[in-house]
């Protein structure tokens, strides 16, 4: 078992002539909860897809627990994509059956218990569920696996603010604590209290990788405040009209 769960070296990805990620060097340890933060188009989804092995680097490489992406790493990575990919006629329990067949590390009882505490009726069809409830089902599927690495691409974006804390708490008290969680999100203020570390991405490059404690102690501000300061966009001269 490698102490460094994720290692990226000179990782770059271009789509045609467009560089989405450039020369990313990164190490993330085990049992960490890491926020992957950056403005739209900064490369967050691209990095997550590379870690999943869904796309290939243009140059450079990465390993997960010492192994290049492949069947072994896919078995230890649990991935929440940024869009729903399940058929609407399915019920949550149908998805749990599917995941039990697909993944040895899927804990069916844990999935049902998480549904209960999140107020999701597992026998309801997805098409009868609200957007936020469908997101909860997706999260349950992903977090009920006993994975080494959880990659969450913009979870809980559709969940109302009052429910977000409860969901985060439910997830973090249920997941495999030795696992590392990488969360891409724009909801920094909601999530930063559960994060150990943050990575700021800008135009495909890492501009900051720090522990949250360091930001609070050394900079004397919240991650949300630091993010807004660094990525503040200037208003257009003369306004929009
Ligand atoms: N399939 C693709 N083909 C061409 N360009 C792409 C493709 N996917 C992403 N890009 C480009 O790569 C860059 C990084 O995109 P990416 O989706 O990784 O950003 P992101 O940080 O996840 O953005 P957001 O916060 O808006 O979800 C963007 O400029 C985007 O337009």
From TrEMBL:
Keywords tagged on the record: ATP-binding, Nucleotide-binding, Transport
Q: Work out whether the entry's keyword set contains tRNA-binding.
A: no
Q: Which residues form the ABC transporter domain?
A: 6-228
Q: Which molecular-function annotations from GO does this UniProt entry contain?
A: ATP binding; ATP hydrolysis activity
Kindly list the organism's lineage: Bacteria, Bacillati, Bacillota, Clostridia, Eubacteriales
Specify the species: Flintibacter hominis
Q: Which PANTHER family match?
A: ABC TRANSPORTER ATP-BINDING PROTEIN ALBC-RELATED (PTHR42939:SF1)
InterPro entries on file: AAA+_ATPase, ABC_transporter-like_ATP-bd, ABC_Transporter_VariousFunc, P-loop_NTPase
The molecule here is called ABC transporter ATP-binding protein
Which Pfam families does the protein's record reference?
Answer: ABC_tran
The protein's matches in PROSITE patterns, at most eight in alphabetical order, are given as: ABC_TRANSPORTER_2 (PS50893)
